[in-house]
Amino acid sequence: MTMKRANPGSAHDALVHLFEAIGREHGANSAPAEGIPLAADFLGVTHWTLRKQLDPDQPSDLGFGRVSQLTRHFGCADAAQHLALAAGGVFVPMPNADGKVAGLSAEVMRETGEAIALLLADIAPGSEGGAELTPAEAGDALPAISEALARMADLYALVSETAARKTRTMKR
Q1: What is the rounded distance in angstroms from the CA atom of residue 43 to the CA atom of residue 35?
Q2: Burial code of 28-47, b = ≥16 C-beta within 10 A, e = fewer?
Q3: Is the dihedral of CA 114, 119, 122, 125 positive or negative?
Q4: Are residues 16 and 75 in the same domain?
Q5: CB-based contacts of 72, cutoff 8 Å, min separation 6
Q6: 66: exposed, middle or buried (C-beta count within 10 Å: 0-12, 13-18, 19+)?
Q7: Which among 107, 137, 145, 159 would be 20 to 30 A from 96, CA to CA?
Q8: pLDDT tens for residues 86-133?
Q9: Looking at the structure, do residues 39 and 77 belong to the same domain, yes or no?
Q10: Alpha helices, DSSP H only, in 27-172?
Q11: CB proximity list for 150: less than 8 A, separation 6 or greater
């Protein structure tokens, strides 16, 4: 039995993706359909009960607390991504690896945060141009944006290099 598909971008659609990710990442066969049984077992309910809670046509609801438990336990970001978009932002997960990728990821996040903070200050009501970015403010923001892009390029190069090594290893 498959879950009903909902409108793309809806809360129900985010839940469908969450359960599919649980199945892909934690299922014995890495199959999206394994997500609901795994989640139901974790929550201590039958898969039928969980399916009913996920049906947008039913009055019952899974609830925010349960979605939070599933997100924390299985580490799937679909619900967080949906909430971030609903709030007008984006979800950027923290790196969970040690080493160069984690260090560069932290730098990317710091530099990007600083650049965005500068831009938001530039378009604040009390700034030089008010809600509009002035040429002077844009010129002042460019170095911070450039630095963020440089760190992202460093991270991209490192990840690309790592991916190329894996591809070469698989061809042997």
Answers
A1: 12
A2: eeeebebbbbbbbebbebee
A3: negative
A4: yes
A5: none
A6: middle
A7: 145
A8: 888 877 766 555 578 888 888 999 999 999 999 999 999 989 888 999
A9: yes
A10: 35-43, 47-54, 64-74, 78-86, 100-122, 135-171
A11: 111
Element (H, E) at 13: helix 11-26
Cβ atoms 119, 141 nearer than 8 A: yes
Name the residue range of residue 16's domain.
Answer: 11-86
The token pair that represents 162 in the structure block: 């790592």
pLDDT of residue 141: 93
Residue pair 117/84 in contact (Cβ under 8 Å)? The answer is no
Residue 57 burial (CB count, 10 A): 7
* Amino acid residing at 29: N
CB atoms within 10 A of CB 50: 22
Q: Which whole-number Å values give the CA distances from 139 to 26, 35, 97, 121, in the listed order?
A: 48, 49, 36, 14
